[in-house]
Structure to design on (458 residues):
């Protein structure tokens, strides 16, 4: 007889169930921190929630926060008598609340991802004015998404659908475990008798519908970019035979176009333009391409998070067992949507800063954008930081030359290696190495410290 994963857990609950809980809780903690940072960046920035793009990203971040809290709290909220629940310290009511949060967040994330791709499509392809989108579409999206999950999951709580599972989750399932599948083996369900159908209506169904909507919006936006690219003047399609042969493919031609066109993207692609620096067709193409790129990355974040969950769901619906490696992958990737989203959200600003200030590591610039509230720091601050780093590197190089000819090294060791004239800390030559031409010779921590200090003075 081929046992399902639930039966394997029940027969040997301590075999791998604990590892799954650790992986899932750790990933959810990372995602919770990332989504919280995004939400704070938006509400503390100059624009705050003034534009629909920011409001949709804020809603997506809050959705992940809700899901992450539900995932993290589930192993602790389960009743102590739950099979294989090492961390269980809660009760049925606590498990219901945790399940309410987790299930709501799980449905909210794809809904807001679809809303985001719909926003890009309507603004970029159909040229809907932002004011019209706010008045006719946006408020309906927010109200519909919130009410669907609030009312639906409240009904699920009233029907006792949320129960503890041996895998450390409080979600929609029958109790005792397995009663929905084989009541003659596990007994009749005392709780959550209709949990399977309720989960299909409230969670799994909307996820599938949203995914179909996302594919439609992304496909329409891709076609729009292709049409715009096809209408570009010949000089932007390639200038030699080598490129003309390859540029018939959309993405290759896009790369060729980008090589001669200055990209001035920002986080509100559909709301702002490039100040008349390009003609109208080129401007539309730039906005459309950047919108397609950003929306595609948000969709990729969604797919990465929900791919293994979808595979597990399809296997479950086909009465097939779920392989253990899929369970592990699901436990890692499903809770990480917030982490993926913060990379996507900060990408335009990080890329722009990296092009303008190649002296800095991309990770440093990523942290700088976060510390700046999601915006680029003032140019004078960045320029001052570049100049200061160059001066420090030059001082370190001169100090290194002087120290190489100094026979009294002990005196330098006693004062801790601090040069009283330059007030710079000298590192171990074996660790820092020499300063090469074109290399500022400073470590990542020095860059971050300098930039943080510079921004704190503003």
């Amino acid at each position: 007889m081929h046992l399902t994963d639930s039966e394997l857990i029940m027969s040997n609950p301590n075999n791998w169930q604990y590892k799954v809980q650790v992986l899932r809780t750790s990933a959810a903690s990372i995602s919770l921190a990332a989504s919280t940072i995004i939400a704070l960046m938006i509400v503390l920035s100059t624009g705050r929630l003034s534009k629909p793009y920011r409001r949709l990203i804020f809603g997506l971040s809050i959705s992940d926060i809700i899901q992450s809290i539900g995932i993290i709290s589930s192993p602790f909220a389960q009743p102590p008598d739950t099979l294989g629940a090492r961390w269980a310290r809660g009760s049925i009511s606590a498990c219901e609340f945790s399940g309410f949060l987790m299930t709501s967040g799980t449905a909210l994330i794809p809904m807001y991802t679809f809303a985001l791709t719909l926003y890009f499509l309507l603004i970029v392809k159909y040229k809907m004015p932002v004011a019209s989108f706010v008045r006719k579409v946006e408020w309906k999206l927010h109200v519909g998404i919130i009410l669907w999950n609030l009312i639906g999951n409240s009904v699920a709580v009233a029907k006792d659908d949320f129960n503890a599972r041996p895998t450390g989750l409080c979600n929609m399932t029958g109790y005792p475990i397995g009663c929905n599948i084989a009541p003659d083996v596990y007994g009749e369900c005392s709780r959550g008798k209709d949990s399977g159908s309720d989960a299909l209506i409230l969670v799994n169904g909307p996820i599938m519908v949203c995914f179909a909507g996302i594919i439609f919006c992304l496909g329409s936006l891709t076609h729009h970019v292709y049409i715009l690219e096809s209408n570009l003047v010949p000089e932007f399609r390639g200038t030699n035979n080598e490129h003309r042969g390859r540029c018939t493919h959309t993405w290759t031609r896009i790369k060729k176009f980008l090589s001669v066109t200055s990209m001035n993207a920002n986080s509100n692609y559909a709301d702002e333009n490039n100040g008349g620096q390009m003609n109208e067709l080129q401007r539309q193409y730039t906005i459309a391409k950047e919108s397609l790129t950003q929306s595609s990355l948000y969709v990729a974040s969604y797919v990465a998070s929900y791919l293994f969950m979808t595979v597990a769901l399809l296997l479950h619906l086909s009465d097939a067992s779920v392989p253990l490696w899929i369970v592990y992958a699901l436990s890692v990737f499903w809770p990480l949507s917030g982490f993926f989203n913060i990379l996507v959200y900060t990408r335009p600003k990080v890329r722009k800063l990296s092009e303008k200030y190649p002296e800095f590591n991309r990770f440093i610039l990523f942290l700088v954008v976060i510390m700046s509230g999601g915006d680029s720091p003032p140019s004078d601050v960045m320029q001052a930081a570049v100049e200061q780093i160059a001066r420090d590197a030059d001082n370190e190089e001169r100090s290194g030359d002087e120290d190489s000819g100094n026979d009294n090294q002990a005196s330098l060791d006693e004062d801790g290696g601090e040069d009283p004239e330059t007030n710079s800390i000298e590192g171990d030559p074996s660790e820092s190495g020499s300063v090469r031409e074109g290399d500022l010779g400073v470590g990542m921590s020095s860059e971050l410290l300098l930039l943080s200090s510079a921004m704190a003075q503003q």
Q: What stands out?
A: The longest strand covers residues 162-164. The beta strands are 162-164, 170-172.
